[in-house]
Target: Retrovirus-related Pol polyprotein from transposon RE1
Amino acid sequence: MATDGENRVNASMATPLGNSGGRRDAELPEFLQLHGGDNPGMVLVSTPFDGTDFLAWRRSIVIALRAKMKLGFIDGRYTMPDITSDAYDTWIRVDSMVTSWILNATTKKISKGFLYTKSSRQLWLDLEERYGENNGPLVYQLRRFIVSITQDTLGIVEYFNNLTTLWDELECLRPPKTGDSGKGVALHTRWNENRNGNISRGNTQTTVRGNYKGKGVIDKKSQFCSHCGRTGHMKETCFKLNGVPDWYKDLKDQKRRERGLAKGFNVITGEGGGSSDHTLQFGETVKQMTELIRLMKDNIPQQDLLQVNFAHGDDFAGISHQRSCPHTPQQNGIVERKHKHLLNIARSLLHQASLPRKFWADCILTAAHLINRLASHLLQWKTPYEILYQKPPTLTHLRTFGCLCYATNVLPHKDKFDPRASKCVLIGYSSVHKGYELDHLGNHTFFTSRDVQFHETIFPFTSTPTTNRTFLPASIPDTDVCPFPESPQNQSLPTTSPYSLSYSCSSSATFSKTALPAGKKPIGSRWVYKVKLRQDGSIDRYKAWLVAKGYNQIEGVDFFDSFSPVAKTVTVRLFIAIATTYQWSILQLDVNNAFLHGHLDEEVYMVPPEGYTKADAGLVCRLKRSLYGLKQASRQWNIKFTSKLEAFGFKQSSHDHCLFTMRTDSYFLVLIVYVDDVLLTEDAKPAATPLPAGVKLDASSGSVLASPDRYRRLIGRLLYLGFSRPDISFPVQQLSQFIQHPREPHWDAAIHLVRYLKGTSSLGLFFGADSPLTLSAFSDSNWASCLDTRRSVTGYCIFLGGSLVSWKTKKQATVSRSSAEAEYRSMASTVCELLWISYILSDFGIPVSSPIPFHCDNKAAIHITENPVFHERTKHLDIDCHIICDRFKYDFILPHHVSTHQQIADLFTKALPAPQFTRLVSKLGMSSHAPT
Model:
């Protein structure tokens, strides 16, 4: 029964469009009316048609157009009226709207081929002709899918959904039922029988179909035997005439077994009954299945999810199999985390050795082999191997994965002059033999061998040699002044590179044009270009700055104060150690054109830069904001930055002016302002120590360097590198004393240090997550070690838990008359550093546990600390004595004596032999990590 709306539509369609006369739009048929939300850009379907699955897309378009009363435009029911009709323009407008909707539902590649169709009906017919198929092939293909689909390992619901989808697609293509003849009803009944028969056959249909596949259709009823008078066979194959063959006996036995197997079939139905049953084959007896289901009932909640019906009538509750969502491995929990652990290690092994992807399985096995032999804190620092076998594993057989190795050639019939070893690659450890899994580089065969010689620094699959390699970028001039013509608008600039010129000056109101006042002198400017590099040494981008010639500024006229605070590296290391322990998130922020944000208080005038076409003759630029090169640039930027942070609620630390904190009830924010730099080195042979053991430099030995600038630039970069490398603190301190007049021995020592860095480029500080936040200190001195002044060298290092946060090597200000005096002055410097660190920790909200362990290898200095007797020997140490004794009195420090061999601070005061140096460096908490 049609609704009222449908009756109105049918009535409208029955009315000829040519007789509409002068009706208003409200009187037009509903299919010619457009609503406010209808527009040519509307998308009717969620997935545009891309040339595949036309049937499903066609169904979606039909549903959408039927909902909008526009389906008649594409199926031919709404024909175009006469051109003289008043409804002609309206019909064209609505038909064009339908055409645009259909084109929007296709991809751009397809819509381009149908842009010039005259109507939506023609567009629809063209699409069906090009992408549609006749019903016959589609019906045949769908019926093949329905017949061939089996349940296999699918669940009942999923299996039924797959069948329902195929049935619905087939339903769209089946012929309609007719009332004039019984043929349509009979055909519809036959289709339903096919549907019910498919699911009742279940899995057995696949087997039957496979047995007769390719044999053709044989009607046995038409065959008649003239010898025995029976149907179903011919005389040539009659058993009474030819005898019963052996294959027939085997076939009868097979059918007998199948009938017995069919009795073991069990039917699983849903709780609601349903119209069909799904047969599942169980290879066990009913008694075994009964016991299995009983165990399942004892271990699951008493909730009937499925009914399992057996032949004897017993019902058992099943179990619910809940799957994880697609593409959400996080739901796998602990298993997924272990998979991630395995993959991370395997990926590292694969890329570190540059192995092809085909070795992924060997990487997984090797990763599992290593994990089982690594201690874990979850196992009380025992290995899984030890937990399983109750004995510690042997690690002497471990070698570098993917390295070059030579295995003994054990092939028979070899010539006397054949190689005695085969060139191979280590790809793992055998699980069934006591040997190594190797890949032969000649014929790429895999074998296991025990007699192997390894070269663990050579990786055959690496395109570049890895021996003594470094991850530091190649040495190129970091700043090139005007590598191109002065004007940045010059056409010779590289057009293929992102050359970012500093035109932000004018856009940010950095300067304004004005006449030069009397008595004022403008400073110059120039363009400075720099090539920005990536970590691998490749060019990232070209950058240019407009730099003011600040060296022409006069103090008191052009500027007054130029000091700008910079975050202390100790603060940064303390922050990293605390953040690692508390699992804080660390984000790095880089302020682009930082100096351009500072406002100038003084009047500074600058000559217009090259290429600035807006400058009139006789005018100069008055700087309103800072420029690179100005004396006060960093200070003005820091003032602006600090005021903004305080406006946001940050509090500036009184102990480090570049440390800002914000504490609320829900979060704690820490912000540190710092400056970074890089070190560039050349190719060199690595050295074992930063300086040769026992070397002492002076200011008079050797000849003076002809070009001292190169030495000064190198020392400047080494000073920055020393912020993260405590192992080079002493050599950098020694070399920096001779910047004014460097000599050949100083240059040789600096090159020796660079060679050491070449071999240890991956060495860095390690901050452990399980480190306790307690302070400890080591202090040492080298008495009268300076050959020129005979002053002593102070060295100390301070740990926060197991993380090294502060260290220093410094020449003492005065000459010490004894080693005890030198040690005592070194202890005073260490105590002052401990006091300052305790204040910073209080800013972070970390309490300091007292007393702090204080290690020194001089018993006389410790005795003076604990017994401050001011006699002739110590009266000149009055101030230092008061500092240390007061801290000892208030339980801030607790001195401990440590032997010289265990004194970690010893490497901050002298050049040590390689074995002792390596042992002490390992105690600093430094580890090797090759960048990726």
In short: The first strand starts at residue 265 and ends at 269.
